[in-house]
């Protein structure tokens, strides 16, 4: 429950902080208005950490630059066309803090692109009513410490509701990306989306076509970085927006008939995502949110719809859905313009997520454990988390058996790592030495010999260079 008295006290502390006080004094001395705006005001009121400071003013960009130059160590004007000047403001006690100051805006949109016709405004209130949601449309005038809330943001904070300041059809028509932000803020803040706003999201989904894949990807990443991305994913799915840029996830709602029964793959995937986040936090409490891991958890079963087979007697199979899912994940993430490293990690995790379940059915040899580590490579820890999170059965005995089995494989990996340095498994003989021993030059045979030695190393563990050379000569002789 929002405690307004505490929120006002936090706002007061923010307004008198060294950075804000320094800027407020400079703008007041120059005869201009200044206000903290948007997220910092919202977060201070509800007790969230304030990480970035955004200001708005009636000063034009040239005036902003003139005012902040004497009190800053660096400035950048990459956003000058939009009225934004950035700076690192010197603090009285030493050090600096990064801020952005933007001229009041009164933009208009053509409905064809997301690019507004930039127009500078005259009033703070006019600037606020053009923003995305009421809870982000509040400002704190400084140094006067006057809260400006023309759209009822405080009331919506108390109600834990996301609502657009204007008619949602107009707001989303101006900038369709705001619909994805609604889901992201709902996940970040734990708020509900107001019914009229939710209805407009469902009605205006087609307008996402004017939003670039890079922008959609950015919102998806921010959603996955939130404390409860499942909340936002449900909103995107219920409004039909998710199907427009990540259709493989809604497709996980597989048809279930009275004869063939299987778990709800959509709900299972959301549970795996939630459990992966819990494991990520418990195993790496000080690390930033792991977006590739969370993407893999969400997408790990997207190969199931294409591989589902209804078997006689009521069974359902999904043979090779891991391989199919890896290909689908790669294609979709490429379309969303993810970087190649993320695409590689996610598709590899999706491809490997079933590998462990063979271990649970029967003990692996040391060779099989080595191959598991080799195939996972740098993603072994992520694979540990994903595989553990993939257990969503309500059968406690089965869940415990799988958990104990994974405890066992991690212990065996640790033992083998200590004994054999399996993180860097490679033959005792490299390519140059292979050429010397066999009397051959660079070519296909060197690669084949190397793979032979690698398989030997995986199967039998460390051999020593002399034994490896003998086995290599025997292999070469057997080839004729």
Question: How would you concisely characterize the structure shown here?
Answer:
The protein is 54% helix and 9% strand.
Structural overview:
It comes from Microbacterium hatanonis. This protein has 480 residues and is α+β, with helices and mostly antiparallel strands. The chain has 4 domains: 159 residues, Beta Polymerase, domain 2, CATH 3.30.460; 86 residues, Orthogonal Bundle (Hydrophobic Seed Protein); 179 residues, Hypothetical protein af1432, CATH 1.10.3210; 48 residues, no CATH class. 54% of the residues lie in helices and 9% in strands. A hairpin with a 4-residue loop joins strand 6 and strand 7. Helix 8 runs antiparallel to helix 11 and helix 13 runs antiparallel to helix 14. It is elongated. About 1% of the residues have low confidence.
**What is the level 1 CATH name of the largest domain?**
Mainly Alpha
The proportion of residues in beta strands is: 5-15%
Which spans of ≥5 residues are poorly predicted at pLDDT below 50? 257-261
Q: DSSP helix count? A: 24
SS content category: alpha+beta
Q: Kindly state the mean pLDDT as a whole number?
A: 89
For the record, give the distance between the C-alpha atoms at the N and C termini, rounded to a whole number: 80 Å
- Helical content (DSSP H or I, runs of 4+): 40-55%
The general outline is: elongated
Instruction: Tell me the total number of β-strands.
Output: 11
Largest sheet composition:
7 strands, mixed
Q: What is the name of the CATH topology of the largest domain?
A: Hypothetical protein af1432
| Domains, number | 4
What is the CATH architecture term of the largest domain?
Orthogonal Bundle
């Amino acid at each position: 429950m929002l405690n307004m008295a505490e929120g006002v006290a936090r706002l007061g502390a923010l307004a008198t902080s060294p950075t804000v006080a320094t800027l407020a004094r400079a703008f007041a001395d120059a005869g201009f208005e200044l206000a903290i705006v948007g997220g910092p005001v919202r977060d201070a009121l509800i007790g969230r950490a304030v990480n970035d400071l955004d200001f708005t003013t009636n000063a034009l960009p040239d005036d902003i630059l003139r005012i902040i130059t004497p009190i800053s160590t660096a400035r950048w004007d990459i956003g000058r066309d939009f009225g934004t000047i950035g700076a690192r403001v010197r603090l009285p006690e030493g050090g600096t803090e990064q801020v952005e100051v933007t001229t009041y805006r009164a933009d208009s949109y053509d409905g064809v692109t997301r690019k507004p016709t930039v127009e500078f405004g005259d009033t703070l209130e006019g600037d606020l009513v053009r923003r995305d949601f009421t809870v982000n449309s509040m400002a704190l005038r400084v140094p006067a410490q006057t809260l400006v809330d023309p759209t009822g943001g405080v009331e919506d904070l108390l109600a834990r509701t996301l609502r657009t300041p204007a008619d949602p059809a107009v707001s989303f028509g101006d900038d369709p990306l705001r619909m994805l932000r609604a889901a992201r803020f709902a996940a970040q803040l734990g708020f509900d989306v107001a019914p009229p706003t939710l209805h407009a999201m469902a009605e205006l989904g087609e307008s996402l076509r004017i939003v670039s894949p890079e922008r959609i990807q950015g919102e998806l990443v921010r959603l996955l970085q939130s404390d409860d991305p499942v909340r936002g994913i449900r909103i995107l799915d219920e409004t039909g927006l998710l199907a427009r840029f990540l259709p493989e996830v809604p497709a996980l709602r597989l048809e279930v008939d009275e004869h063939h029964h299987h778990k709800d793959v959509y709900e299972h995937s959301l549970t795996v995502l939630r459990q992966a986040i819990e494991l990520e936090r418990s195993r790496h409490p000080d690390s930033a949110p792991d977006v590739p891991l969370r993407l893999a958890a969400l997408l790990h079963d997207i190969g199931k719809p294409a591989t589902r087979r209804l078997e006689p007697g009521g069974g359902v199979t999904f043979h090779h859905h891991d391989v199919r899912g890896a290909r689908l994940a790669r294609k979709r993430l490429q379309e969303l313009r993810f970087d190649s490293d993320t695409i590689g990690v996610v598709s590899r995790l999706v491809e490997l997520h079933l590998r462990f379940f063979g271990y649970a059915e029967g003990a692996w040899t040391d060779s099989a454990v080595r191959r598991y580590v080799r195939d996972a490579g740098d993603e072994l820890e992520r694979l540990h988390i994903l595989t553990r999170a993939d257990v969503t059965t309500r059968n406690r005995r089965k869940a415990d058996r799988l958990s104990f089995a994974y405890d066992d494989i991690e212990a065996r990996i640790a033992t083998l790592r200590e004994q054999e340095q399996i993180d860097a498994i490679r033959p005792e003989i490299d390519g140059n030495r292979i050429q010397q021993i066999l009397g051959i030059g660079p070519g296909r045979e060197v690669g084949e010999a190397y793979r032979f030695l690698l398989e030997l190393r995986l199967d039998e563990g460390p051999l020593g260079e002399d034994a490896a050379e003998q086995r290599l000569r025997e292999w070469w002789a057997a080839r004729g």
